[in-house]
Every structure is written in structure tokens, then in C-alpha cells.
């Protein structure tokens, strides 16, 4: 086997194409939800439960995706402290889930209020994601095989969802109650105008950028077959961002007819699916391989 065959290829990214891809992905992905809500009048899932059995399946999916994400990224973190690893995973998943910046900003835009209430409101979600990130990093040496990853995801998601989440929700529930005077009523209702749509599209850059970072970091560890690699990355982003299974469970308690119930939550699932598909398509066009000796195809990467 030649030296070129044994050398590990580096990823070469076409940054102009990537930038265009980020912008296109931002507009098209969010527009799935916007068009369904604004033009087709699909109702917002106001009754969506964040706790109890209807919410647990998505927590399992998120936990499984975080475990797989870190395992895809492990080689990138060689020699880096475990604290930095936990922080990196936490920031990435928080951004993919629109929790780090977009959630409080959109709350402020929707209420035309400049208080700390939206920031405090999002802290329980961030704390739970931080716990999941740390658990995923710490459990990596024990979850190398697929069945161990799934078992670890089942255990971690159950512990965090059924034990940690109720405690954190209770504590922050009391805190939010004590500062409830800082909360403001919603100022805008669908159909939204530019006051909501402009910040909505601008802040959606958060999950889009994070999804591209996830794809770039995981790319070399995904399947060597283009179709399988596209499926892996699309599913990874869909499970991370969610909701993956909530459109199905929502039908059992929403009180809506099955189709309306499915579309109500499904508009966000389709948004996440579009984000995954467009991110994968863009990276397929942008990432190329180059070997240490400078050789390598100039066409878009077809194997990894």
C-alpha cells in the first residue's frame, strides 16, 4: 500500500460556497415553519407538554444524538481537557436547539420587554443540556459500541428527565414566580409582521451555524458512502434540534384531529429536517479532501 493510500486526508473547505450555503439554509429552513404558520394557518402547538411521558421520547432522542455527536468529535478533542470538551459540546447542542441566544432574544422581541425574565426563563433548559453534555463526555469510554450507546442514552435520559428535570423545574419555578412582575404579556400574534420576522430570521443563524459546525467536526467519522453519510448527518441534526417524535405523541392529548395535531408540531420537525438536509447538501459541495503531500481531488468530497 502506498504512502498516499495510508495518509489521512485533511478536509479542505470552500468558504465562499459555505457562506452562501449558510444563508440559503437559514432562509429555506425557517421558511418551512413560517409558511406553514403564516400562509397555511397551521396552529401553534400551545398544549405541547414539556414533562411527563409525552415529552420523554424526544429526550431519549436528544440524549442519543449527543452521545453520537461527541463520539464523532472525540478525535478532534485529543489532548484537550475534559472541561473544555464538556463546554464545547454544551455550546454546540445549546445553539442547535436555539437555547443559548435565540430563545431569550425572541422572547424579548415578542414582548417588547427589556428585562432579565426571558434570560432566567431559559436557564433550566441550559442547565439540563449542560448535564447531558457532561454525561455524554464522561460516558464516552463506556459507550463505544452501538448497543452501549443506546443503553447509555436510555439510562442518562431517564435519570435526567425523571429526576434532574423535576428538581430544576421546581427550583426555577420558584425563582420565576418571585420575579413574575418582570414578565410581560405577548405583544404580537400570528400572522407576524416584520417586528417578529426580521429578528426570527436573523437569530435562526444560531442553529444553522451550529449545525454546520457539527457537520464539519463529525464529517470524517461518518460513513464513507455518500448516501449513508448524508442520512447520518441529517438524522443527527434532526434528533439534536427536534422535535423528532413529539408530532406523534402530541396527537394523544392535544384534543385536535390527528392531521392538525401532526402538522402543528410537525412544522418544527420539518424545519429541523430541512436544516439537516440543507446542511448536509452544502457540506457535500463544500468539503474536499487533500492529502499531506498536497494531492487530492479538486471535486467535492465523495468519500470520507
Characterize the structure shown.
- The chain is mostly helical and 304 residues long.
- It has one domain (3-290).
- Helix content is 66%, strand content 3%.
- The protein contains twelve helices and two strands.
- The protein has helices spanning 3-6, 15-38, 56-73, 82-96, 102-111, 117-139, 146-178, 194-203, 205-218, 226-241, 246-249, 258-286; strands at residues 10-13, 287-290.
- A two-stranded antiparallel sheet has the order 1-2.
- Helix 3 (56-73) packs across helix 6.
- The model is unreliable at 1-8 (pLDDT under 50).
Radius of gyration: 20 Å
Count of the domains = 1
Could you say which overall geometry the principal axes of the C-alpha atoms support?
globular
Give the total of beta strands.
Answer: 2
Which consecutive residue ranges, at least 5 long each, have pLDDT under 50?
1-8
Order of helices and strands: HEHHHHHHHHHHHE
Amino acid at each position: 500500500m502506498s504512502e498516499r493510500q495510508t495518509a489521512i486526508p485533511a478536509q479542505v473547505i470552500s468558504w465562499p460556497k459555505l457562506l452562501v450555503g449558510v444563508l440559503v439554509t437559514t432562509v429555506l429552513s425557517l421558511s418551512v415553519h413560517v409558511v406553514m404558520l403564516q400562509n397555511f394557518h397551521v396552529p401553534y402547538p400551545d398544549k405541547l407538554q414539556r414533562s411527563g411521558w409525552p415529552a420523554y421520547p424526544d429526550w431519549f432522542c436528544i440524549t442519543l444524538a449527543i452521545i453520537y455527536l461527541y463520539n464523532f468529535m472525540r478525535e478532534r478533542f485529543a489532548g484537550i481537557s475534559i472541561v473544555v470538551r464538556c463546554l464545547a459540546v454544551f455550546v454546540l447542542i445549546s445553539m442547535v436547539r436555539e437555547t443559548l441566544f435565540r430563545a431569550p432574544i425572541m422572547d424579548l422581541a415578542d414582548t417588547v420587554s427589556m428585562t432579565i425574565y426571558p434570560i432566567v426563563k431559559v436557564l433550566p433548559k441550559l442547565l439540563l443540556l449542560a448535564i447531558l453534555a457532561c454525561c455524554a463526555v464522561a460516558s464516552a469510554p463506556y459507550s463505544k459500541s452501538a448497543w452501549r450507546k443506546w443503553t447509555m442514552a436510555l439510562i442518562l435520559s431517564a435519570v435526567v428527565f425523571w429526576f434532574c428535570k423535576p428538581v430544576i423545574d421546581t427550583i426555577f419555578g420558584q425563582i420565576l414566580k418571585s420575579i413574575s412582575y418582570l414578565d410581560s404579556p405577548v405583544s404580537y400574534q400570528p400572522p407576524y409582521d416584520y417586528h417578529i420576522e426580521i429578528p426570527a430570521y436573523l437569530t435562526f443563524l444560531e442553529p444553522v451555524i451550529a449545525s454546520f459546525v457539527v457537520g464539519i467536526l463529525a464529517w470524517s467519522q461518518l460513513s464513507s458512502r455518500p448516501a449513508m453519510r448524508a442520512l447520518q448527518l441529517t438524522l443527527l441534526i434532526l434528533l439534536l434540534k427536534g422535535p423528532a417524535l413529539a408530532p406523534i405523541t402530541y396527537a394523544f392529548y392535544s384534543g385536535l384531529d390527528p392531521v392538525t395535531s401532526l402538522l402543528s408540531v410537525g412544522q418544527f420537525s420539518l424545519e429541523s429536517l430541512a436544516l439537516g438536509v440543507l446542511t448536509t447538501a452544502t457540506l457535500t459541495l463544500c468539503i474536499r479532501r487533500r492529502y499531506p503531500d498536497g494531492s487530492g481531488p479538486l471535486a467535492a468530497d465523495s468519500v470520507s
